[in-house]
Specification:
This protein is mainly α. The protein is 83% helix and 0% strand.
Length: 183
């Protein structure tokens, strides 16, 4: 059984998942502050969970050495997670600054890379670099206020585009014209 056949058999679920993603994305954008805070709280819980697992691993495998380093890493994760959980608004503001910094630096790298490497279709890399650079500058210029809504908006946009991709794939699977790519 090929992938196309499997996808066709479950295209209803793919379509439903896409529609739910689009609706969730629109809600995340409409309520971007709430979506931002929920994402920070979720991240905090994940970091705490990872720290607890790291600590358990360190204690369980203490005879292998480096117990202190693993325990310090675990403690750091739990403390960072607890700080984010205790103060999600300042956490969101700090995370937004990190995201803006990432966009600016990755934008510069992409622009320089596209000009230096001379790859085929390098114009797309150049455009991608300028888009990242513009996003980073835009978020940075409105900081700290952007810290309250940017993460939720980015999550919403991501969900909308993921949902659109799923819906379009489900609709394409309805027709018999969709054939798997051959390599």
């Amino acid at each position: 059984m090929d992938v196309t056949h499997d996808l066709r058999a479950h295209r209803g679920w793919l379509l439903a998942s896409g529609c739910i993603s689009i609706i969730a994305g629109m809600a995340a954008i409409a309520y971007s502050v709430i979506a931002t805070l929920v994402s920070v709280i979720f991240l905090a819980v994940l970091i705490i969970f990872a720290g607890v697992l790291e600590g358990a691993y360190a204690i369980r495998h203490r005879e292998r050495g480096h117990l202190t380093l693993y325990l310090l890493e675990a403690l750091l994760a739990v403390v960072i997670g607890a700080l984010l959980l205790r103060s999600p608004v300042p956490g969101a503001i700090v995370l937004t600054m990190l995201v803006a910094t990432y966009f600016v630096i990755s934008g510069v790298f992409r622009v320089v890379g596209s000009l230096a490497l001379r790859l085929p279709n390098r114009g797309w890399l150049l455009v991608s670099g300028f888009v990242n650079l513009a996003l980073g500058i835009l978020v940075w210029s409105g900081w700290p206020v952007t810290g309250l809504w940017v993460l939720g908006t980015f999550i919403g946009v991501n969900w909308i585009f993921r949902g659109l991709a799923q819906v379009m794939l489900a609709l394409a699977l309805r027709s018999n014209r969709l054939e798997p790519l051959t390599t």
